[in-house]
Design a protein that fits this description.
Elements (H helix, E strand, L loop, with lengths): L1 E4 L5 H10 L8 E3 L2 H9 L4 E2 L8 E3 L2 E3 L1 H26 L4 E4 L2 H9 L4 E4 L12 H17 L3 E4 L9 E3 L11 H8 L4 E6 L7 H11 L5 E6 L11 E2 L6 H7 L2 E5 L2 H10 L3 E4 L5 H9 L10 H8 L11 H11 L2
Parallel strand pairs: 1-2, 1-6, 2-3, 6-7, 7-8, 8-9, 10-11, 10-13, 11-12, 13-14
Antiparallel strand pairs: 4-5
Helix pairs in contact: 1-2, 1-12, 3-4, 6-8, 7-11, 8-9
């Protein structure tokens, strides 16, 4: 089995290792790129890292030049098709699993290899005007690939339909109790974690979140800044980590971009959160809206911090990772 993981956002890698934890006895080769490859490797899986995705251009928290990014993504997609095509033909796997890597899906389906897709979205909405015509054609191609999958796994709650299975949140298990993790990380007081993902897209959030949390009495703040962000803040900066889920579990509040996997992990472990989307990033705006937030909440972070820091912990039991694995297993 080959497992192709999109490196655009680290949430794909984190949920994929949660599913892969059930892969005992199955030869699995991961393919991805960048920081996603490190997360997968740090969780003990073999991984190749040939992908180099385009970055979102974010200015003051707003997605800039979406049409330009869409074109860059299309160019990246064509290059990924060459890479995936070579790897799939060399390995001839019994099954290709893709987490939003549509290049590998298209190749596998064209040569008759069964495919399973893990995805948050069934269509994109990045552009408007003339750019939406280009995006519409790309969405049509994506819909055709979705229809061609043996199974499509959505990490959300809802009814199944056709080849689409909704399994609920897919999150990684923690390795210790919350008390032990707090001791391990040195969280002696109430702790707020600021998390901005694997790229510099969240730089705008760091500044506002640091301002909102500084000088709070009997509260510590830590920053998980990702591999590409440096900050002059005196707040403790953990940089890049592969176990953000355990840091979220150990924290009393998380302030984050509105990535689905971070939201799902916070909900699963019962940690209150504040989730600020990149403006004009449709997926993050949808995720944030579901949690009761919008981009404009960035301008009242201090108020939100005070409101949410003392909320009770309400963990949610989820078995989405095991359900996803059982679906994949049916096609092996």
């Amino acid at each position: 089995m080959q497992f192709f993981c999109s490196p655009i956002g680290l949430g794909h890698a984190t949920r994929d290792v949660a599913v892969a934890a059930f892969f005992e006895g199955v030869k699995t080769e991961f393919v991805t790129g960048g920081a996603a490859a490190k997360i997968i490797s740090d969780h003990g899986f073999e991984v190749q890292s040939p992908y180099s995705p385009p970055r979102f251009e974010v200015r003051d928290g707003r997605l800039a030049k979406p049409l330009r990014w869409l074109w860059q993504y299309y160019t990246y997609y064509k290059e990924c098709k060459k890479i995936a095509g070579k790897m799939i033909r060399e390995e001839s796997p019994d099954l290709v699993v893709s987490d939003e890597d549509f290049a590998s899906l298209g190749i596998a389906q064209s040569i008759g290899i069964p495919t399973v897709l893990i995805t948050d979205i069934l269509q994109t909405r990045f552009t408007s005007g003339i750019g939406s015509l280009v995006e519409k054609r790309m969405n049509k191609s994506m819909q055709d690939m979705i229809k061609g999958c043996a199974s499509v796994i959505l990490p959300e709650i809802g009814d199944d339909e056709g080849n689409i299975s909704r399994v609920g949140p897919i999150v990684r298990p923690v390795s210790a109790t919350r008390e032990d993790l707090r001791e391990k990380f040195g969280f002696a007081r109430k702790t707020i974690t600021i998390s901005v993902g694997g790229t510099d897209a969240g730089r705008f959030l760091i500044q506002k979140a640091v301002e909102a949390t500084e000088n709070l009495e009997n509260v510590d703040t830590v920053l998980v800044s990702g591999p590409s962000i440096q900050t002059d803040s005196k707040i403790r900066n953990l940089g890049f980590v592969s176990n953000l889920h355990e840091i979220i579990y150990a924290s009393d509040l998380v302030i984050s971009l509105a990535g689905k996997s971070t939201i799902d992990e916070a909900r699963a472990y019962g940690t209150p959160g504040i989730f600020i989307p990149i403006l004009n990033h449709f997926e993050q705006e949808d995720n944030a809206r579901d949690e009761g937030f919008t981009y404009n909440d960035i301008f009242r972070l201090r108020e939100l911090v005070k409101q949410r820091l003392d909320l009770p912990r309400l963990p949610v039991t989820t078995d989405g990772a095991e359900k996803a694995w059982r679906i994949i297993k049916r096609h092996l």
